[in-house]
Amino acid sequence: MEDRIALKKHLSTKHLLGIKNITTDDINLIFTTADNFKEVLNRPIKKVPSLRDITVANLFFENSTRTRISFELAEKRLSADVVNFSASTSALKKGETLVDTVNNILAMKVDMVVMRHPNPGACVYLSKHIDVNIINAGDGAHEHPTQALLDAYSIREKLGDVKGKKVVIVGDILHSRVALSNIFCLQKLGAEVMVCGPTTLMPRHIGSLGVNVGHNLKEALEWCDVANMLRIQLERQEIKYFPSLREYTMMFGLNKEILDSLSKKITIMHPGPINRGVEITSDVADSDQSIILNQVENGVAIRMAILYLLAGKIEKSA
Amino acid sequence: MNLLIKQARITDPNSPHNGKKLDILIENGKITSIRKSITRKVKTITDANLHVSPGWFDMHVNFRDPGYEHKEDLNSGMRAASFGGFTGVACMPGTNPPLHTKSEIEYILHKSKGSIVDVHPIGALTYKLEGKDMTEMYDMHLSGAVAFSDEKNPIQSAGLMLRSLLYVNGFNGLIISHSEDKEITLDGMMNEGDAQVSLGLNPMPAIAEELMVARDISLVDYAKSRIHISSVSSARTVELIRAAKRKGINITAEVAAHYLGIDDLALNGFESNYKVNPPFRSKKDIQALRKGLADGSIDAICSDHSPEDEEMKNREFDHAAFGIIGLETAYAAANTYSGLSKKELVAKMAIRPREILNIPVPIINRGQQANLTLFNPTQKWTYSKSDIKSKSVNTPFIGTQFTGKALGSYNNNQFHEVV
Questions:
Q1: A97 to chain B: which residues are within 8 Å by CB?
Q2: B133 tagged catalytic
Q3: Residues B89-106: what's their mean pLDDT?
Q4: Residue B249 half-sphere exposure toward CB, CA atoms < 13 A
Q5: Which residues are paired to B411 by β-bridges?
Q6: What is the set of domains in chain A, with CATH numbers?
């Protein structure tokens, strides 16, 4: 295993801060590396020693369950030492700055940081102030690169290739880091992207990214090969962008009736956690067209690949 | 303080010597002679391309005194102004306590009295800048407040703005409005546009500014009062002001120099020294601002000098404070980016600001009090951190090469040479 993954190729970057600034070669290298790790994950003994003596800190300044567990599992499968820090009521409230908080943890000899943070650009900011490798696990409405990679990887797995495929992202595009990273990633891999949702949840200048913009779910679904249904995050919205969940579901909820009325079989995705009966009904989420659980499974392999490739850039003295 | 200025090109539309290259002798604060050639054994200023104009005036600065003296106190603020070539400034009321009674107005005037920079306080429009209760504006006016504004806490209530505009009519007071509908900008961080979409930062759409300018134009027309729009940033705002002026509405406007050279693409690295309010907008907006200056829609160029300490700036973009310092780069940025002639720049940076605030405009002529700025409009220089005289260093211009530099200023019988 070790030998097969010890490719001569390296990522073009020291950090994974977003998809916007990595290359298509980087993405393909992550995918081929993930292919190998996926095979490892299906073995009876799922652990490899690749990250032995590497310490990873998972710093979660915002609530997360699945992303944190996925990272933690990926790290442990690679034999890394792992420390977890989570502070939804951020240390900032005690007056400590982000850089101070992180430096305090790094002083305990940490090699890599995985960070989730509510503010856009927080990982970019941190990368200018600390020296270790940083993986962005979601920064505000900016980027969520590992999610986009596992999404594209899951499309590739299901449909053979991402290139030439039509993908629609449905829901709250305005507050979504998943949408933004997905757009960058899918476009780099040659897919065509549409965003679909209420105009109030659509950035006014989203068209400048080269995506199609739609407001009719049925039309968007007829157009696409893959539909990625985003979670409607009522908890983030202090301002009302639509009157009620009920009405949102009437306009943008995906149910079996709509799915079966389409002229072809499309693939259904969701980054989770699902609001069953809101953006997607149970019978759709659990149907054979859904790859929602494959996404979760692939998430571990993708994160292992990223950790492994970035760790290759760590120089350990003796 | 006596001074001999040799072979300086005089740029002063109110002076009989305008456009001529002459020697100027200043003795004990007064211009005593202007001739082709003067010889006198006093401090003498020469330069390869020496220009002299009435002392520059910045009608929009923030000195953080009282309350936040660690960011800027009156002395450091005046020093920064002086290095930038300014002999006069109008300072905003966003201190702690705010400049919202005559006590604070008199504190500013008393503490700055007699210095090389004349500091004119702008009083708060509402008590504690809360946007609720009007301050005693007449009392502050009597004490020396030159205008009234809640600065970056714009008046959201149209009714309050209307009553304020009507009220100041009684003593020809001036209201300065930072135009922003907070219900639209919410917790916006940067201009709404292509750059913003890929950064995921909350937008501050230009329409938030334009709506308020449109509102205030209607209100000022109705009240038969006058208003000054601070820090214009969008193309549509320029159009609105241009149209209002054509209709004869009593409105004036300013732009801060940095808006003439920086667009929103600069924010790509989440660098908080590009976080300003109003936000840096598009290249198209910059073109409109330059055009608005050239055709007189925009009257004045200011610095919107906003000192912030390291703790407020060096943090996550969402949490960083808005604003940058600008006194020491305002002329250079305006000269480099505006496309205006030196004559036009002197109008925008020395004459119009004083006219708007009803402050006497200095004239370069024999017998006048000397209040003037020396500059070289073609000198190239690079701004470095060690140049900074302000207590704060929050500027995106470090390392920028500018054309045009203030060389010194003379006011209140004092000379300050920029070296």
A1: 311, 315
A2: no
A3: 98
A4: 25
A5: B414
A6: 2-144+297-311 (3.40.50.1370), 145-294 (3.40.50.1370)
Q: Give me the residues of chain A with pLDDT under 70, please.
A: 1-8, 88-95, 234-237, 315-318
3-state helix, strand, coil in chain A (%, to 5): 40, 15, 40
Q: What is the pLDDT of residue A4?
A: 46
Chain A residue with minimum CA distance to B270: A121
Alpha helices in B247-389 (DSSP H): 283-294, 310-313, 330-337, 342-346, 352-356
What mean pLDDT is reported for chain B?
97
State the average pLDDT over residues B291-312.
97
* pTM, rounded to two decimals: 0.94
pLDDT value for A3: 43
Decide if A125 and B316 are in contact by the 8 Å CB cutoff.
Answer: yes
Check A125 against B315: CB less than 8 A apart.
yes
CA B345, CA B348: separation in Å to the nearest integer? 5
Contact B200 A142 (CB under 8 A): yes
Residue of chain A whose Cα is closest to the Cα of B184: A239
Q: Are B111 and B77 in contact (CB under 8 A)?
A: no
| For testing contact with chain A, the best of B196, B197, B207 (most A CBs within 10 A) | B197
Question: In terms of Cα–Cα distance, which of B331, B317, B332 is closest to B276?
Answer: B317
- Residue B55, Cβ neighbours under 10 Å: how many? 27
For CA atoms B228, B234, B239, B240, the dihedral sign is negative
Alpha helices in B224-329 (DSSP H): 235-246, 283-294, 310-313
